[in-house]
Q: What sequence folds into this?
Protein backbone atom coordinates (compact mmCIF):
# COMPACT_ATOMS: atom_id res chain seq x y z
CA UNK A 1 0.00 0.00 0.00
CA UNK A 2 2.82 2.40 0.82
CA UNK A 3 4.15 1.91 -2.71
CA UNK A 4 1.00 3.26 -4.36
CA UNK A 5 1.93 6.07 -6.71
CA UNK A 6 0.47 9.50 -6.06
CA UNK A 7 -2.69 10.46 -7.96
CA UNK A 8 -3.12 13.89 -9.53
CA UNK A 9 -6.87 14.41 -9.26
CA UNK A 10 -6.58 17.60 -11.32
CA UNK A 11 -6.19 15.36 -14.37
CA UNK A 12 -9.36 14.30 -16.22
CA UNK A 13 -11.11 11.37 -14.57
CA UNK A 14 -11.15 9.60 -17.92
CA UNK A 15 -7.35 9.44 -17.64
CA UNK A 16 -7.38 8.32 -13.99
CA UNK A 17 -10.19 5.77 -14.09
CA UNK A 18 -8.30 2.73 -15.42
CA UNK A 19 -5.44 3.10 -12.92
CA UNK A 20 -7.85 3.71 -10.03
CA UNK A 21 -9.89 0.67 -11.06
CA UNK A 22 -6.75 -1.48 -11.14
CA UNK A 23 -5.89 -0.47 -7.56
CA UNK A 24 -9.39 -1.27 -6.31
CA UNK A 25 -9.63 -4.60 -8.11
CA UNK A 26 -6.24 -5.75 -6.81
CA UNK A 27 -7.12 -4.83 -3.23
CA UNK A 28 -10.61 -6.36 -3.34
CA UNK A 29 -9.16 -9.64 -4.65
CA UNK A 30 -6.52 -9.85 -1.90
CA UNK A 31 -8.69 -11.05 0.99
CA UNK A 32 -5.75 -11.45 3.36
CA UNK A 33 -4.62 -7.86 2.88
CA UNK A 34 -8.17 -6.53 2.99
CA UNK A 35 -8.80 -8.25 6.31
CA UNK A 36 -5.51 -6.97 7.72
CA UNK A 37 -6.39 -3.40 6.77
CA UNK A 38 -9.90 -3.63 8.23
CA UNK A 39 -8.75 -5.08 11.55
CA UNK A 40 -5.71 -2.81 11.63
CA UNK A 41 -7.85 0.33 11.39
CA UNK A 42 -8.92 -0.19 15.00
CA UNK A 43 -5.31 -0.04 16.20
CA UNK A 44 -4.46 3.08 14.22
CA UNK A 45 -5.66 6.15 16.13
CA UNK A 46 -5.67 8.34 13.02
CA UNK A 47 -7.64 5.88 10.86
CA UNK A 48 -9.97 4.80 13.65
CA UNK A 49 -11.13 8.37 14.21
CA UNK A 50 -12.38 8.34 10.59
CA UNK A 51 -14.35 5.07 10.85
CA UNK A 52 -18.03 5.91 11.13
CA UNK A 53 -21.52 4.60 11.81
CA UNK A 54 -24.17 6.73 10.16
CA UNK A 55 -27.85 6.72 9.32
CA UNK A 56 -27.80 4.41 6.28
CA UNK A 57 -24.18 3.28 5.99
CA UNK A 58 -20.98 2.53 7.88
CA UNK A 59 -17.45 3.38 6.71
CA UNK A 60 -14.08 1.86 7.51
CA UNK A 61 -11.02 3.84 6.41
CA UNK A 62 -8.35 1.37 5.30
CA UNK A 63 -5.59 3.66 4.03
CA UNK A 64 -4.98 7.38 4.10
CA UNK A 65 -2.16 9.26 2.39
CA UNK A 66 -3.59 12.57 1.26
CA UNK A 67 -0.08 13.81 0.49
CA UNK A 68 -0.35 11.38 -2.44
CA UNK A 69 -4.06 12.07 -3.01
CA UNK A 70 -5.14 8.65 -1.77
CA UNK A 71 -7.75 7.57 0.77
CA UNK A 72 -9.30 4.11 0.52
CA UNK A 73 -12.35 3.10 2.51
CA UNK A 74 -15.10 0.50 2.65
CA UNK A 75 -18.75 1.57 2.57
CA UNK A 76 -21.42 -0.82 3.85
CA UNK A 77 -25.14 -0.10 3.61
CA UNK A 78 -27.09 -0.74 6.81
CA UNK A 79 -30.58 -0.05 5.48
CA UNK A 80 -32.27 1.11 2.26
CA UNK A 81 -31.37 4.69 1.34
CA UNK A 82 -33.54 7.37 -0.15
CA UNK A 83 -32.63 9.09 -3.41
CA UNK A 84 -30.43 12.06 -2.47
CA UNK A 85 -29.31 14.41 -5.23
CA UNK A 86 -25.82 15.52 -4.28
CA UNK A 87 -22.30 16.38 -5.33
CA UNK A 88 -19.09 15.63 -3.42
CA UNK A 89 -16.23 17.50 -1.78
CA UNK A 90 -13.77 15.32 -3.71
CA UNK A 91 -13.55 13.16 -6.83
CA UNK A 92 -13.49 9.38 -6.42
CA UNK A 93 -13.63 5.93 -8.00
CA UNK A 94 -16.01 3.28 -6.60
CA UNK A 95 -15.94 -0.53 -6.96
CA UNK A 96 -19.18 -2.34 -6.11
CA UNK A 97 -18.08 -5.47 -4.23
CA UNK A 98 -21.57 -6.67 -3.33
CA UNK A 99 -25.15 -5.57 -3.98
CA UNK A 100 -26.06 -2.69 -6.24
CA UNK A 101 -26.78 1.00 -6.59
CA UNK A 102 -29.66 2.56 -8.48
CA UNK A 103 -27.75 5.41 -10.10
CA UNK A 104 -29.34 8.69 -11.18
CA UNK A 105 -27.46 11.52 -12.90
CA UNK A 106 -28.80 15.09 -12.95
CA UNK A 107 -28.40 18.05 -15.24
CA UNK A 108 -25.80 20.51 -13.99
CA UNK A 109 -27.26 23.61 -12.31
CA UNK A 110 -25.76 27.09 -12.16
CA UNK A 111 -26.28 26.92 -8.40
CA UNK A 112 -27.33 24.13 -6.06
CA UNK A 113 -28.13 25.29 -2.53
CA UNK A 114 -30.91 25.86 0.01
CA UNK A 115 -32.87 27.96 -2.52
CA UNK A 116 -32.90 25.27 -5.25
CA UNK A 117 -36.38 23.92 -6.01
CA UNK A 118 -37.09 20.21 -6.17
CA UNK A 119 -38.36 20.43 -9.74
CA UNK A 120 -35.13 22.12 -10.87
CA UNK A 121 -33.12 18.95 -10.21
CA UNK A 122 -33.82 17.11 -13.47
CA UNK A 123 -32.73 13.52 -14.22
CA UNK A 124 -30.45 13.21 -17.26
CA UNK A 125 -29.70 9.45 -17.04
CA UNK A 126 -30.40 6.38 -14.90
CA UNK A 127 -28.74 2.97 -14.67
CA UNK A 128 -27.80 0.23 -12.18
CA UNK A 129 -24.29 -0.37 -10.83
CA UNK A 130 -23.97 -4.03 -9.81
CA UNK A 131 -21.37 -6.30 -8.23
CA UNK A 132 -18.07 -5.86 -10.08
CA UNK A 133 -18.96 -2.52 -11.67
CA UNK A 134 -16.65 0.47 -11.22
CA UNK A 135 -17.52 4.13 -11.70
CA UNK A 136 -15.67 7.41 -11.22
CA UNK A 137 -17.40 10.65 -10.18
CA UNK A 138 -16.02 14.19 -10.44
CA UNK A 139 -16.64 16.43 -7.45
CA UNK A 140 -18.76 18.79 -9.58
CA UNK A 141 -21.08 16.06 -10.89
CA UNK A 142 -24.56 15.79 -9.37
CA UNK A 143 -26.03 12.32 -8.89
CA UNK A 144 -27.89 9.92 -6.58
CA UNK A 145 -26.73 6.42 -5.65
CA UNK A 146 -29.28 5.00 -3.19
CA UNK A 147 -28.86 1.54 -1.72
CA UNK A 148 -32.01 -0.47 -2.44
CA UNK A 149 -31.34 -2.86 0.45
CA UNK A 150 -29.00 -3.94 3.24
CA UNK A 151 -25.51 -5.21 2.50
CA UNK A 152 -24.29 -3.24 -0.49
CA UNK A 153 -20.50 -3.05 -0.06
CA UNK A 154 -18.18 -0.75 -1.99
CA UNK A 155 -14.46 -0.07 -2.02
CA UNK A 156 -13.77 3.61 -2.64
CA UNK A 157 -10.59 5.39 -3.72
CA UNK A 158 -10.98 9.13 -3.21
CA UNK A 159 -8.90 12.23 -3.61
CA UNK A 160 -8.31 15.26 -1.46
CA UNK A 161 -11.31 17.47 -0.65
CA UNK A 162 -11.54 20.60 -2.76
CA UNK A 163 -14.57 22.07 -0.94
CA UNK A 164 -15.51 22.68 2.69
CA UNK A 165 -18.98 21.24 2.15
CA UNK A 166 -21.14 19.63 -0.52
CA UNK A 167 -24.90 20.04 -1.16
CA UNK A 168 -27.55 17.33 -0.75
CA UNK A 169 -31.27 17.37 -1.60
CA UNK A 170 -33.83 14.68 -0.79
CA UNK A 171 -35.55 13.62 -4.01
CA UNK A 172 -37.86 11.43 -1.95
CA UNK A 173 -38.84 11.60 1.73
CA UNK A 174 -37.05 9.80 4.54
CA UNK A 175 -39.06 8.26 7.35
CA UNK A 176 -42.27 10.25 6.87
CA UNK A 177 -43.52 13.03 4.65
CA UNK A 178 -43.14 15.94 7.05
CA UNK A 179 -39.71 17.35 7.76
CA UNK A 180 -38.40 16.98 11.30
CA UNK A 181 -36.26 20.02 12.03
CA UNK A 182 -32.70 19.30 13.16
CA UNK A 183 -32.26 22.34 15.36
CA UNK A 184 -31.68 24.54 12.34
CA UNK A 185 -28.37 22.85 11.56
CA UNK A 186 -28.12 22.31 7.80
CA UNK A 187 -24.75 20.57 8.18
CA UNK A 188 -26.21 17.47 9.87
CA UNK A 189 -27.95 14.75 7.87
CA UNK A 190 -31.54 14.45 9.17
CA UNK A 191 -33.07 11.19 10.44
CA UNK A 192 -36.37 12.20 8.82
CA UNK A 193 -36.94 14.58 5.93
CA UNK A 194 -39.57 15.68 3.47
CA UNK A 195 -39.12 15.54 -0.26
CA UNK A 196 -37.02 18.55 -1.31
CA UNK A 197 -35.33 18.99 2.09
CA UNK A 198 -31.74 20.22 1.85
CA UNK A 199 -28.58 19.87 3.92
CA UNK A 200 -24.79 20.08 3.52
CA UNK A 201 -22.27 17.31 4.00
CA UNK A 202 -19.09 18.60 5.61
CA UNK A 203 -15.63 17.31 6.45
CA UNK A 204 -14.76 16.11 9.93
CA UNK A 205 -12.89 19.35 10.61
CA UNK A 206 -16.25 21.19 10.50
CA UNK A 207 -18.08 18.76 12.76
CA UNK A 208 -18.48 19.30 16.48
CA UNK A 209 -16.83 17.02 19.02
CA UNK A 210 -20.28 15.71 19.92
CA UNK A 211 -21.10 14.96 16.30
CA UNK A 212 -17.81 13.11 15.77
CA UNK A 213 -18.47 11.06 18.91
CA UNK A 214 -21.98 10.18 17.68
CA UNK A 215 -20.59 8.92 14.37
CA UNK A 216 -17.54 7.09 15.73
CA UNK A 217 -17.62 3.39 14.91
CA UNK A 218 -17.47 1.08 17.94
CA UNK A 219 -15.05 -1.87 18.20
CA UNK A 220 -18.08 -4.17 18.40
CA UNK A 221 -19.40 -2.80 15.12
CA UNK A 222 -16.07 -3.40 13.40
CA UNK A 223 -16.10 -6.99 14.67
CA UNK A 224 -19.64 -7.31 13.31
CA UNK A 225 -18.49 -6.16 9.89
CA UNK A 226 -15.55 -8.54 9.83
CA UNK A 227 -17.95 -11.42 10.51
CA UNK A 228 -20.50 -10.10 8.01
CA UNK A 229 -17.94 -9.57 5.26
CA UNK A 230 -16.72 -13.11 5.87
CA UNK A 231 -20.29 -14.36 5.49
CA UNK A 232 -20.62 -12.36 2.27
CA UNK A 233 -17.49 -14.11 0.97
CA UNK A 234 -15.53 -10.87 0.71
CA UNK A 235 -12.90 -11.83 3.32
A:
Amino acid sequence: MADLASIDWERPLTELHDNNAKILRRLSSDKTLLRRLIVGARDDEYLWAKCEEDIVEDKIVLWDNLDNGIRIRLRMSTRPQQRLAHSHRFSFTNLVMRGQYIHWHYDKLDSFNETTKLEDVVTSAQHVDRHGDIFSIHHEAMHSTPFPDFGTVSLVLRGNPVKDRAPVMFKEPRGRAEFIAQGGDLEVEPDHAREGAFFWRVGEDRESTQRRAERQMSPAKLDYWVETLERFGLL
